[in-house]
Amino acid sequence: xxxPREEDTTxxxxxxxxxxxxxxxxxxxxxxxxxxxxxxxxxxYPGVTVERKEGRTRHEGHELVFHDLPGTYSLNAxxxxxxxxxxxxxxxxxxxxxxxxxxxxxxASQLSRSLLPAFQASTLGxxxxxxxxxxxxxxxxxxxxxxxxxGENLGVPVIPTVGNKGRGIGELKDALIQSAAxxxxxxxxxxxxxxxxxxxxxxxQSPDTLRGIxxxxxxxxxxxxxxxxxxxxxxxxDEERREILHLAHGRVLSGGHHPATAEPVLLFEHIxxxxxxxxxxxQANAPSWVRxxxxxxxxxxxxxxxxxxxxxxxxxxxxxWSGPIMDLIESGTAWTQGFVGVFLTHTxxxxxxxxxxxxxxxxxxxxxxxxxxxxxxxxxxxxxxxYMARAAFLADRLFSGFGLSGKSFVPLMSSxxxxxxGIMATRTIEDPRTRLTxxxxxxxxxxxxRLPVYVIMIGAFIEPHYGPTVAALTLFxxxxxxxxxxxxxxxxMQKFILKAPSPPFLMELPPYRxxxxxxxLWRVGQRGKRFLTDAGTVIFCITVLIWAxxxxxxxxxxxxQTRTAFITGQAKTSGLGTESVIERLQDPGxxxxxxxxxxxxxxxxxxxxxxxxxxxxQPLFEPAGFDWKITIGVLASFPAREVIxxxxxxxxxxxxxxxxxxxxxxxKLKQEVWPSGPRAGQPVFTVATAASIMVFFALCMQCGAxxxxxxxxxxxxxxxxxxxxxxxxxxxxxxLTFQVLSRWIPV
Amino acid sequence: MxxxxxxxxxxxxxxxPKGQKAQLEDIGPDAVLAQxxxxxxxxxxxxxxxxxxxxMGGPVLCRFPSGKLGIRHHDAQKLRVKRNPPxxxxx
Lengths: 747, 91
Known about the structure:
The complex is a heterodimer of chains A (747) and B (91).
Chain A: H1 6-9, E1 15-22, H2 28-36, E2 40-44, E3 51-59, E4 62-68, H3 80-89, E5 101-107, H4 111-114, H5 116-121, E6 128-133, H6 135-140, E7 143-145, H7 147-154, E8 158-160, H8 169-182, H9 193-203, H10 215-224, H11 238-254, H12 262-275, E9 279-281, H13 293-297, H14 302-342, H15 348-366, H16 369-385, H17 387-400, H18 409-414, H19 419-425, H20 432-441, H21 451-497, E10 506-509, H22 517-551, H23 556-574, H24 578-585, H25 591-607, H26 609-621, H27 628-636, H28 644-651, H29 663-671, H30 687-699, H31 704-713, H32 716-744
Helix pairs in contact in A: 9-10, 9-11, 14-15, 14-16, 15-22, 16-19, 16-22, 19-31, 20-21, 21-29, 21-30, 22-31, 23-24, 23-25, 25-26, 26-27, 27-28, 30-32, 31-32
Chain B: E1 11-12, E2 22-26, H1 31-39, E3 47-53, E4 60-64, E5 67-71, H2 73-76, E6 80-83
Antiparallel strand pairs in B: 1-6, 2-3, 2-6, 3-4, 4-5
């Protein structure tokens, strides 16, 4: 290996910015992780949902700043993430400077094709270093490399690496610093006369030279880019540009080349000549059974069967492994609330703020971590074996009709457990259009927090009337209504809203590989950290805000009035005197004082800002069959839908400790009648009301955490649109359900 | 639209029987698709065969010298192949 010589690197700037480019599946990201260690910052490029990753490391007295650009097969940018890669190389993103060095990660066994983006970038005049990654795999296939000759022919250093095992990292860093001193460029192709002429024509219109981007680069991109994006960088108006491109294309055609394919054809020919004699095929020693895996795993029948089993296993694991941890977090939160509450009994407001606001807020954030971490771990492992590419291939037909792709399957499926890890899993979708659509519709999948609502409504109103078969069908319908609507929303979005050009969808099936547990754990840690910092703060704030709306204004008169009314009522029904009722209330453990406590809590909720709001907007929910009590429950569930059961418990004077199996709550719901209005005296809860409530919960985005994660992964605009759309859908769905069913089924 | 009758029709990649080896003749009128394929190392003249075809107009799984690629049905229809190619001479 070439070691950096002291005298050569003294002129090299102390801080070096290195852009990492490479085709997908070349192991670019795991190499980036090994190069930078834990000193990473992950974010989005401004205005687009494309992940931006930056990492730093110190080597031989230099600070190396790595920028992991989106993977691209070629610099002919079609999709927004590919455009970002080109812009970043030119220093046009506004978030990072123009790179000092370009590191091209190539797959050693596919060296010629993975060098294409490097050769396209070489006209930028930035020194390039090539990492021949997965060298172990190439050697197992029987390929032998002469790296000295390779470096000589290509003009730049070629370093063998195994990113996921951390091999060749030191040598790569040495080579990067050395190349900043040497400024070595790739051996340029000798373009035929016709192409040279065409490039000269376009060069005259290139304005970028002033900003340090050679006009040859701009001209080359404008000439060969079929999507027309690069052409916009030339001077002149659309008409002039089109004219000059037409002229240039004429020259290309006159030389017997086609403008769309001339660049890859000529560059590959050039690369093949350079590689000649550097790579030799000898006896392979890779296990042959791996090559036959796809006969089963990508098979239309057996493949789907295995896929179903694998996915079932994954979600079963997410569900069952996270369950006990979530219970632990819940009881931990409850214990902390009780423990801290003891010290604050003299200041009830502070006690409630700390216990029900702050501690509950922290609890509501970390409760999501187990599912996020387990799902990320399992999907990450499957992804690094290459299996997820097969899964995307198998699932593609199901989604392509709606403008999505096979890669949407895992995020949508995992949203059935919880939309938060589901939305985070959309990061595996490279195409930003598909990614945005998928994360937008993910909250419509019926997550596990909706289940308690279905259980109590079906258990109390459907099953007793119609038996277990209809009950099961209803439960199934509730799980299917969301995705059916979601896929149609996706179709409309792709058709009418996100009309940006989408590249033809090629699903590359990389070779099967042994995943690196360390690499995957790394990603899991990053996800968890990002969730806590980005979404966690918002979830926390929403929880505290809703606490305040349910707590204040809390006038003391409410408690007094409730107490007086309670005593009078009790005295009348029991036939005892008011005195003896008061006497019995002295015992804080008695059933009577418990009942009073529940009535006071209920009265406070009714009198709170949120309670008043619920009463005020109730007319809006009247067509859906909701009375003011249900409306308060619905409003209070906007930050987290799972609180509906305990909120209903409080409103119906049963206290907050109710769950979906509670028989008290069920019988209370059945007894509830309309106090006034057109339906006075009739029961509030009928089959129609129960169905309308379930439909509302199935379609509504009653989850502050989902809003927060959408904001973090996309933008406020996306989060707000999804919220408004889903709330509208939920209302429409509930009204429609109630109006239809209440005519058919009056009870 | 009148078909050019002098042009001999070639087979679509999408209608190639499973396992039948063929030679990629034309990567089609869609310039963006052509560029994509070429950037993935796929060139006219290469040998190709279909390992799997997903039912109901699903994607096809193609084996190229540069690796495996899933191509959607409507894209695979744009690619022309020639069956039973003569043994290609070594480049």
